[in-house]
Amino acid sequence: MSGGSGGGGGVRVAVLGGGVAGAAAAGAILLHARAHARSLHVKLFRGRLERSSSLAPAILGPECRSRLASLGIDLRTTRRRVQDVRVVEVVSERRTEVLPLPAGGLWVVDAWTAGASGQELLSDAAAQAAFLNGAEISIARPDRVERPGAGQARPAGGRLLVRVDGRAERFDAAVLATGAGDPWRDRFFPGFRGAPTVPAAHARLRFRTLAPLGAPAIRLILSPQPGVDGLYLVPCGITVYALAFGPGAGTAELCQAVMAAARDGHLADGFEIAAAGATALPSGAGARLTAPGQVAVGPVALGHPLQIGLSQTLAGCTRAATALLEHLEDGPALDRRYVRDGLREMVREANEGARAVPWLVRSGRRAAGAFARAVRAGNILSSFSSGVLGLPGPSPGALLEAARWSGIVSALERLLRPALEPLPPSAPVVEPDLYYVVDDDGAARDALAQFLESQGAQVVTFSSELALFAAVARRPPTAILLDVVLQWVDGLRLCEGLKRHPLTRGCRVFVMSGLDLPHVRERALRAGAEAFFPKPIEPQLLLQILAAHRALRADPPGAGAALNHVG
Ligand SMILES: Cc1cc2nc3c(=O)[nH]c(=O)nc-3n(C[C@H](O)[C@H](O)[C@H](O)COP(=O)(O)OP(=O)(O)OC[C@H]3O[C@@H](n4cnc5c(N)ncnc54)[C@H](O)[C@@H]3O)c2cc1C
Question: What are the pocket residues of ligand 1 if the criterion is a CB atom closer than 6 Å to any ligand atom?
Answer without folding.
Answer: 16-22, 45-47, 50, 56, 119, 141-142, 177-179, 182, 232, 243, 281-282, 298-300, 303-304, 307-308, 310, 312-313
